[in-house]
Amino acid sequence: MRNWLLGLGLGMGSLALPWTELADVSRLSGIAAVGATLGLLSRGGRGGAIAALSSGMLMGYAWGVVATSHQLANRLPECAQERPERLLVLVERQPAPLSGSGSGGVRVQALVVEHEQPGCSNLVGKRLRLSWYGAPPVTAGQSWWVTAKLRVGWGYRNPGGFDHARWMLGQGLDGSGYVLRGEIAGTPTGGGLGAWQASLRAHLDDLALHGAGVVYALATGDGSLIDGPTWALLRATGTVHLVVVSGLHVGLVGACAYLLGGLVVRAAPVTLLWLPGRRAGALFAVLGSGA
């Protein structure tokens, strides 16, 4: 099981290599079938370990291709580019100020909830990264009717160059653009991550804490409220990793998932006959860290 999980991680990680290509459906089916066969044939000894490792790599690659292909299929269509679209969007994260913008510009990550008079494609469900110059006060959890011009992800094939499309794919974004105008449609109510973030920010504002942006970043993983001097201090002291997602955070998530996996299978003892507690914990750790 350990070799299979190691192979699973290597297979999924191979998609991050710049020269890796996505297999088509027929090749993917063959890869998955070979991986499953090797998994069934893996037994003890060196040969079994190699078979388990190979099985995990093939299954990890197949799983990664399916997930990546699904996300690529949901990208913003070309026909929706550079034309004004009227959208009802939900602000998912606390907006970050635009660098070099002296007019109160912010960058907003928003989910399209409603698309008024869709043209070539309905954009409901798309996740967008919008620049908004001269924006009014915007808070996570709010709903806004916006008129925006959208763009698909772009990227150069130059080796070593920044690939914007690849970066957007990794961030789970379907497109970007900028807001021409907008009006608020609703404020955060009830539960949800956006409402909780807005409540936390309001509470920190009321407390008027020195370094409230750092506290907010530690609690939410969003460093948009940290000012320039504080970032400089964090870099000088080598503590930037505390307020950004790093290997430490992934390791903590994996450790918690490992414990959770062991508890889950022990709660149903019959599962221990085919999935020991440590193996279940390892499987949960891989899935939790990947998520």
Polypeptide structure, described:
The protein is of the alpha+beta class and 291 residues long. Helices cover 46% and strands 16% of the residues. A hairpin with an 8-residue loop joins strand 2 and strand 3 (106-116). The radius of gyration is 23 Å and the shape is globular. The chain starts with a helix and ends with a helix.
Highest-level CATH class of the largest domain? Mainly Beta
Mean pLDDT, to the nearest integer, reads 75
Estimated radius of gyration: 23 Å
Largest sheet: 5 strands, mixed, barrel
Helix fraction bin: 40-55%
What's the architecture of the largest domain in CATH terms?
Answer: Beta Barrel
Uncertain runs with pLDDT below 50, 5 residues or more? none
Number of beta-strand segments? 6
The count of domains is 3
Q: What is the rounded distance between the termini?
A: 20 Å
Secondary structure layout plus pairing:
Elements: H1 2-13, H2 25-41, H3 45-73, E1 84-91, E2 96-97, E3 106-116, E4 127-132, E5 143-151, H4 164-171, E6 175-186, H5 193-207, H6 212-220, H7 228-237, H8 247-267, H9 277-290
Parallel strand pairs: 4-6
Antiparallel strand pairs: 1-3, 1-5, 2-3, 3-4, 5-6
Helix pairs in contact: 1-3, 2-3, 5-6, 8-9
In a few lines, what is going on in this structure?
The protein is of the alpha+beta class. It has helices spanning 2-13, 25-41, 45-73, 164-171, 193-207, 212-220, 228-237, 247-267, 277-290; strands at 84-91, 96-97, 106-116, 127-132, 143-151, 175-186.
